[in-house]
Amino acid sequence: MISRLKRSVLAMPGSNARALEKGKTLAADVLMFELEDGVAESAKATARAQVAAAVADGGYGARQLVVRVNARGSEWYKPDIAAIAPLGPDGIVIPKVNSRDEILKAAADLVAAGAPYKTRLWAMIETPRAVFDIEKIASAADDRASRLEVLVLGPNDIAKSTRARLTPGRPALLSWLSAGVLAARVHNIEIIDGIYNDFNDLDGLRREAAQGRDFGFDGKMLIHPGQIGPVNEIFAPSAEEVDFARRIIAVFDEPENADKGVVQIDGKMVERLHLDIARRTLQLVEASG
Ligand SMILES: CC(C)(COP(=O)(O)OP(=O)(O)OC[C@H]1O[C@@H](n2cnc3c(N)ncnc32)[C@H](O)[C@@H]1OP(=O)(O)O)[C@@H](O)C(=O)NCCC(=O)NCCSC(=O)C[C@H](O)C(=O)O
Ligand SMILES: [Mg+2]
Description:
Blueprint: E1 8-13, H1 17-22, E2 30-34, H2 44-57, E3 64-68, H3 77-84, E4 91-94, H4 100-113, E5 120-125, H5 128-132, H6 134-138, E6 148-153, H7 155-162, H8 174-186, E7 190-193, H9 202-215, E8 219-222, H10 228-234, H11 239-253, E9 262-265, E10 268-271, H12 272-287
Parallel strand pairs: 1-2, 1-8, 2-3, 3-4, 4-5, 5-6, 6-7, 7-8
Antiparallel strand pairs: 9-10
Bound molecules: ligand LIB3CWND and magnesium ion (MG).
Magnesium ion is lined by residues 37, 95, 126, 154, 156-157.
């Protein structure tokens, strides 16, 4: 089964009241209220109060609401968790996670703060240690108490801390991207690709989003409303993919193929594993309306 779609995860600084309001009208699958690096130190308290009010008041319809708190160990983490966790957002995003143990401690922090069970943990992978140990971090999800549901890549922090450059096609990041997808699949959680900074360059965004989709990511983190439409489209199956999926299902439904493990459609070999993929394609279509 497909859990709720996370094609587009839009960050909005908690200090920007206009953005928080605008989120109610935007077609992002997930709104990520930002308290960390997108908020100046002098605005941390205001941002926390505005985000708490937004989560408590609601009005965001079916959009999933997650809150990125400040890093564990920072002076703002505890007040962030105390203010946000009891309100029961869909997720709390922990930035700059370095270990599995940190996830388990953050989950215990949520319980201590009175977060309802539905509030899941998202972990940002954005340090050299996290990139290196991504499978160990993802393995926290094997412990249900961890609440770990999603990994999110943070390319800006990765670039800062590794000195890698974010160039077109992301050659410096490719092995890290695929390691992340493998870790997520091994531990049955979702993984979201990182942001594309040049928000006016929609062609570049499309290329990078398609690359992330083709690597197996479940969606992309965004910074600007203009990025939502292209990314929702790229992470939804194309009309051709949907048509082919329907044909695969129809062919395997035919009585003469009931005992066949493999058939051909348009000169392509199709096995029953492709039937599973086809069913998932249609579930994605249904989930995206
Ligand atoms: C990047 C921005 C600062 C640009 O803002 P602005 O100059 O206001 O852009 P526009 O004039 O084009 O905005 C047009 C309207 O859209 C609204 N808007 C803009 N951005 C958002 C948003 N993110 N959410 C909701 N609404 C938004 C503007 O208010 C305008 O509205 P209106 O006046 O009604 O027409 C800005 O886009 C921005 O702040 N983006 C998010 C930045 C952020 O949250 N950063 C932290 C997350 S990034 C990250 O996680 C990096 C990661 O950790 C890593 O290491 O890689
Ligand atoms: Mg970051």
